[in-house]
Amino acid sequence: MKILVCDKTEAEAIERMRAAGLQVDVRDDISPEELFNVLPDYDGMVVRSRTKVRQPLIDAAPKLKVIVRGGVGLDTIDAEYARSKGVTVMNTPKASSASVAELAIGYMFALARSICVATASMKAGKWEKKKFDGDEIAGKTLGIIGVGNIGKEVAKRAAALGMTVLACDPYLQECEDADLTGLDDLFARSDYISLHLPKTKESANMIGSAQFEKMKTGVRIINCARGGIVDEDALYEALVSGKVAGAALDVFAVEPCEGHRLFSLENVIGSPHIGAATKEAQGRVGAEVAEKLIEFYKKNGA
Ligand SMILES: NC(=O)c1ccc[n+]([C@@H]2O[C@H](COP(=O)([O-])OP(=O)(O)OC[C@H]3O[C@@H](n4cnc5c(N)ncnc54)[C@H](O)[C@@H]3O)[C@@H](O)[C@H]2O)c1
Q: Are 138 and 161 in contact (CB under 8 A)?
């Protein structure tokens, strides 16, 4: 079985696949145009976030039997279409959960104690001790929207920090470390709101001005899920007005983004979509990609 690795993948994972008998070619900087030319020769492909697998590419590769995405979510792949053509589509849903959860928790501390702003001030040669009065995380209420693999890891850590944890997830009956509640109750009671739901038609721009109105004044927002779940213009206004005291963003409506106007505000901190970017998560992603492809190969042969 011939596999094309289209995005950066752990060397160890490539070796494991080869050792299991798969013929693996690594073209992890391949352009979309070149991919159209070479993919027809392959039975399977490995992708991360960079390579998008849309209908025309699937149509151009009649031999394709399997697509494995290293990562959470399948929004970069026309998965339904691929499956309708008999292509198996898999991902690695849990490999990066702990890393994303740790980033969200880290952001809560960074917002509570102005760590990033204080660092910038020190680097500018200042000693603004009075400016950085913070508050403790313990005793505060965290509202988590979307309690799947990552949301559950966040809930567990927040509960251990002494927070009251509320969670809203219409598809969940119970949650060990959080009290399930409705969205409006979560908005009304939370000091921090962290998003861990997928971006869907339903969740696109689900946090806008009307929702900010329902929140406590001084609430802090953390989005390590997907850009565009929070309406960025409404968030800007809420930060300027002081309704929202701070926001930490790892994801954006349009990525990559440079010079985003939200970052002109001192109370916004963020990162360029690095939630899963830890050595541990990348190692687990690679191992799971290899495992899934080897299992597929064993079941489906050459
Ligand atoms: N920042 C990063 O680098 C990074 C890395 C990995 C995942 N993510 C994102 O994090 C999100 C969550 O990942 P996960 O692994 O926990 O996914 P998951 O599928 O395990 O959990 C998502 C949860 O959201 C719930 N949900 C769906 N629609 C909802 C809605 N409208 N309101 C409330 N809850 C809703 C689902 O029932 C589910 O329990 C995904 O969108 C994923 O893309 C970001």
A: yes
